[in-house]
Structures are given as C-alpha cells and as structure tokens.
Predict the structure.
Amino acid sequence: MEVIQRDDCTAFVTKDGSVIRELLAHRNSSIRNQSLAEAIVGPGIRTAAHFHPKTEEIYYVLSGSGMMHLGNETREVGPGDAIAIPPGTVHWIQNPGALPLVFLCACSPAYEHEDTVMVEG
C-alpha cells in the first residue's frame, strides 16, 4: 500500500505560477496515468493564462475563494466546488481574498511542464 504524506512532498512552482505539492504521480509513486497535487494561490495572486493540449484537469477547492477563468467564462469559486477543465481550454485562477486559495488538482494524463502552453508571461 502506498500512502504519501503531504508534508513529505516538496513544493514547487508550476509554469503558470501556482505553488503545488505533487501528492501522487509517476515521479513519487506507482501511479502512471494521472496525478494529484495540492495547489496554493496566495492572496492577491493569479496564475498566468495557459492551456494543456493533452491534459484534462479537475480543480477541487478546499479553502479560500477565487475567480476561475475558463475559456470565455468567469465564476466565483469556493470550498466544495469542483471545476472541470477540458484539454485545450485557456484558464487561470485568481485569489482576490485575504487568505490562501487551496485546491486539489487532478490531471490525466499526469501533469508535465511540457504540456503547459502559456498564453501570457
């Protein structure tokens, strides 16, 4: 049985500017076809607009609040919200609040920097 403790995962910054901890992926487990990460977007911060040609994502908000931008739509999101992000769809999330925005990010196939296409710097 594989159990990965969040605090044992090293945080890093993705190409879009969010701070993530990869909880389960091919880099640290036997998982091969998907990944699960915790992402944190600090107060007053937004990720850069980007898309993934191959990867579909699911964001699941744990705490904080944010504005999710997906294609031509924008919506406020908060704890308990699950957001579907199809491959090829430009997206970013911003945190206008005073507390960190924390969410889980599930990717299939697994997250790779090479599958992230920046729309802005």
Summary: The domain at 6-118 is CATH 2.60.120.10 (Jelly Rolls). The radius of gyration is 14 Å. The mean pLDDT is 95. The chain has one domain: 6-118.
